Amino acid sequence: MTQAVSIAAKAASKIRGLRWYICALLFFVTFINYVDRVSLGAMAPLLKTAIGWDDAEFGWINFAFQLSYAAMFPFAGRLLDRVGVRNGLAIGVLVWSLAAMAHSFATTVLGFALARFLLGLGEATNFPACVKAVAEWFPRRQRSLATGIFNTGTNFGAMLQGAIMWLAVSRGWQAAFIAIGLLGFVWLAVWMKAYRSPEEHPRLSTEEAGLIRSDQEPPAKALNVPWQSLLRYREAWAFCIGKMFTDPVWWFYLTWLPSYLQRERGVTLASAAGALLVIYLAADLGSIFGGWLPGFFIRRGWSGTRARLVTMALFAAGLPISALGVMAENLWTAVAFISVATSCHQAWSANMFTVASDAFPNRAVGSIVGFGGMCGGIGGMLMLLVAGGMLQWLGNFRLLFVFAGVMHPLAWIVIRALVGRNIRQIDLDRGLRTARSPELFAMGLGLVAVGAALAALVFANWSYILSVTKGSVAAAAGGAAAASLLALMGLALVYASREVRLGAAASAA
Q: Which of 65, 85, 349, 368 has its CA 20 to 30 A from that of 132?
């Protein structure tokens, strides 16, 4: 009788659909990540008066975040593959929550720049950790949907700017930063109590465990995979180049849409806020629908990778409609076109992240997403320079919206050329031993040369760049840093071209 009661109690303790509760945790951490990220912009008018910075100094403060965020991505991904999602993301949230609270003690431009730099170091763990967690907890056919759901946290976080400003005005900007940092600690307490891997979680039912493991790879034979092995695969570069081409588009929307609505549409601050709310809600719907669509195709007999590539093609084709937005005469017609574009981008993004877990085993997903995140950060910093220069030279946003519209179709063409008709599932244990690659070596040297040339070009024309971007030091510095990181990518390729011996697989890193 006692044994029967014990069995019944254990069965009752299981949580039905536990993986979706895990997805909810990932949504909330992504939401907090973006609340922390947009808080400075929301309080910028108040802080400009309180601290006394000018636009150039504010540009440097933002640049400090972008630099550390982009540069930290590969190391964050590597950390997650070494220590696991639970501990790796906990470290990241701890760092960025402390950094968010540190803003309240800053009284100078340098102090805010240091706080933003530390914030970027911590926040770089978020997306590699979330994608890795989804790969561990969800079967392949549901991964893009789970990714689409947690990715909506970015837009909900961005929409909270009004509440942040109200808190700063009513309670003081120092209290606002403290409250924002405390959000991270509340989430962290829940995370450490609730999260375990599927193999260790005591409340995972037998049925759900079978579903999760139905298409997972067998247990890893090696804990760590050498970088030069990962970077040998075309699938890795398909993900990285896809991120480099398309992440800047989202940076463009986040950074320049408010300015576009006020400068070229002549709307009031209240009207701009309403328009942005519509655009961000559309992006949320796109993220969820784009994540759901591959599963719909799979249920009709399509292969997982075919469903992924076709879905990405459909949404890439929707991005050029953004160019129609700047040509429309009516404000809300323009908002409708831009909403379609942002919706398509977030749908693309939900599937773009899943490409990494489609191709690579779970123990390498963090490293791949981290390196791809750095590539996206490089593209985002280049966008600072491109957008500022185009606006100064042309005086309008038209060419920028055209540029934003064509990057996704170009990225899809590159991805399709690299992965072929299907995204293969890579057996890293068979491919760890590799000979020296002259092709990767030559490609790496080429990227080093291009990055160095671009950096030299920026430094040689520093004064001219400042003149055409209205003194935006951050735009010029962003171009130089992006060029330098491009050269760093080249060095990574040179490193990847080295010979890998099987015996060193477990210890190389």
A: 65
